[in-house]
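Each field is set out as follows.
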Amino acid sequence: MIRETKSLDVGTMNLISASLSPHQKILLRKLRHAFLKVNIEPSMMAALKKEGLQYAEIDGSFYALADSAFKMAYTMGKNSNRPMQDGILNAGEDKAEVVFRILIEALLKKASGISPTCYFSVPAEPFEGEHRVVYHAGIIQEILKDLGYASKAVNEGLAVVYSSLADTQFTGIGISCGCGLLNVCISQRAKPVDSFSINRAGDWIDGNAAKVLAMTASKVMVAKEKGVHLRNPDGRVEKAIAIYYKDLIAYTIQCLKARVEARNIAAVMAKPVDIVFAGGTAMPAGFVPVFKSALAQSRFPLKIREVFLADDPLYAVARGCLIGALADRGHDEDPVE
């Protein structure tokens, strides 16, 4: 019987799982991390289910889930509800934990095989303010235990290092640019030298652009996902998105620089290192060149060799968690791309 090893990228926007096929290929699955209460007659649900509606009945009410929730919210000019906010379980949503559990179970399924294991991503503690990472991680572990998995939390930025910096012996800076948070990990030989999160990310861009444009955040998000070039924005919406992106990049460099200087990390990381980005918020055209330009003007205290986007950036965290799980389980064969 095959040892069952999986990983789970627990993102504010998406839930992504990774596992190995019998031929040692990485299999990836994704669900939009969203829900929306819908006023639909029970008699209509069977027909809507045949049309692909993803839904659940909770306490006598119907909720559209995943992509169905996002699409319905956009059509109605609303914002879909999120089980997570700012990178952790959303304390302001009373149905958040229930939906969280339903979506994770739909993505991973019940465990089978020998010693089923699932490594999952968690954010680092924030650069500023307090966080509730311990509670958030505890809820995920409880859900995975109920599904039959032994589990372990993996720092999200370190997962990016695992997935993208094998050529440098997992030494460098991994930055996961998600929807709720930016997670940063400075790693030396696969060991975190320092890690932290920043409470600005995709939602921050969408929310601020929506305010100045008098739009819903969902509509700004759709415009962003259709494609925007940060160095050559087209039209009013893209220009607002680009402005907030540049501000986010400047703030990220400011926080990273302050942390490196405060902890004298330059003394540990003497050689030039790479910076690798992952996550949907890092995917717009021009993101890396804009970051490089801002970094060059910052008098950054570490020597940087390359700045680049991870291969398949949306799935890099899930892949990194899986690589960490396989390494810990002592698999003889590396996963095939």
Observations:
- The chain has ten helices and 15 strands.
